[in-house]
Amino acid sequence: MNDVVAAGTCCECGACVLVCPHNVIEYVDGKPKQTAKANAPFDSCGISEGVGCDVCASVCPRLWPREIHLRDALFGSERGYEGIFGVYRHIFVARTRQQDILARAQDGGVVTALLAWARETGRIDGAVVAAVGEGDAPCFPTPKVVTTVEQIKASASSWYTYCPNNRALEQVEAQGLTQVAFVGVPCQITPLRKMELVDPSFLLAAKKKPQVVSKQRGFLRGPAQRVAFSVGLFCTEVFRRELMTERIAQGMAIPLADVAKFNVKGEVLIYKKDGGIGKIPLEEAMHEYQRPECRHCGDFSAEMADIACGGVGTDHATIVVLRTQKAVDLWQAFAASAQVDMWPIEENKTAWNILQRLARRQRGRIPLGAPRSGTAPDLPQYSAKREADQAIESISAAGKPAAEIDACLDAAYAGAARPVAVAACAAGEPIPGDPGDPAEGAKRKLPPPPTPAQGGASP
């Protein structure tokens, strides 16, 4: 609460509220708030201060480990290539062939088409998306769990105001869904991945019984275990609500109910239902209406997602980045359905160059902070084995009997394998031809796009 919420870095994803095992915090006015004890300080958690918990902090995307510290834990030695935009196996440009999707899509309609195909073929039983639906104010999406192809198609487009998609994972559990696709911006993908990767040994404490450890582990791991695959959306920032209510509705006299969709292509484009297009200079929108919380995010291209997508530098098409083997297998099956056109990234050099610039700029804009924030220089890669060793050493020093430690460890891992080695992977294969950092005062040279043989095309 002090290091994130009071510090102004909270991205409002709601993941901490989702995983809180003891109903200590709730999502109030876009932020987590301690509501368990009204007369207690805002940062008070009786459970954490008593038997111990900290599940909320372990999944927060604004605390260490951040995306760059999780590469070893997620990708291991099978990293493919690495660039300023993260680890990837394939990068290319694509567009759906389904005209009904393309008509309302943000760019190439790839995300919507992929989700619809995955639902039709039974690979997922639903998807978590942000959408404007019945009961929502125009232009202001809310988290949705969609379970039909029609609902998936209706969720196409982005609205550029923040929507805490992670909170919808509670609905996923309530509806009994077990294999959903999760679509979100980078600060929503990272907590999902931390739920999966953070070693549960931190749950051990001197006074804690196995039953409590088991409950906390269930909240830590549960939401991510119901996600079949994740799709991350490229994101520089989202805007405050006032962009819609003041600048567009009042300043431009465009009723929000008349807006069909938005896009950002060097300027903010407002597509009206009557076919007209309103425009706002991007520099103005960023200066006047950018959420201040977004300035603490260094992840432009959803580096922790299975698949990352965005429309920078493309014309009605989508850059697709396949990061994991799961993504490669899924895409190969999707491509075989003949529903999508694909082009190598070297045929879209402008898009490649913009991706490089935006990813590098965002990586370098985060204010330096304390090691706990994950923004201090030279922080190590996250290692489950190292964290587990430290947790066991600490709890042993506290005098907890070995048998009780083993019982709590069994509850923490719940049959999953315990870490047996420190992951210390060498850097993956860099972008072929990357000229590296420029000499002082010199203009940065951008690396050339990879060829198809170097991961620059669909698998």
Question: What brief labels describe this structure?
Answer:
459 residues; alpha/beta; Aspartate Aminotransferase, domain 2; 8-stranded mixed β-sheet; 3-stranded mixed β-sheet; 17 helices
Q: What can you tell me about this protein's structure?
A:
The model has no long low-confidence stretch (mean pLDDT 94). The longest helix is centred in the middle third of the chain and has 16 residues, at 210-225. Helix content is 33%, strand content 17%. The chain starts with a helix and ends in a 29-residue tail after the last strand. A hairpin with a 7-residue loop joins strand 13 (307-310) and strand 14. The chain is globular and about 70 Å long. The chain is α/β, with parallel strands linked by helices and 459 residues long. It has helices at residues 2-6, 15-19, 46-49, 55-59, 71-75, 99-104, 110-120, 149-154, 169-174, 186-197, 210-225, 242-251, 282-289, 325-335, 349-363, 384-397, 402-413; strands spanning 25-28, 31-34, 81-83, 86-88, 90-96, 126-131, 142-146, 180-184, 227-233, 259-264, 267-272, 277-281, 307-310, 318-322, 340-344, 429-430. The chain has a domain at 68-194 and 225-238 and 291-370: 3-Layer(aba) Sandwich (Aspartate Aminotransferase, domain 2), CATH 3.40.640. It contains 17 helices and 16 strands. The strands form four sheets. It has an eight-stranded mixed beta sheet with strand order 7-6-8-9-13-14-5-15. It has a three-stranded mixed beta sheet with strand order 4-3-16, with no helix packed on it.
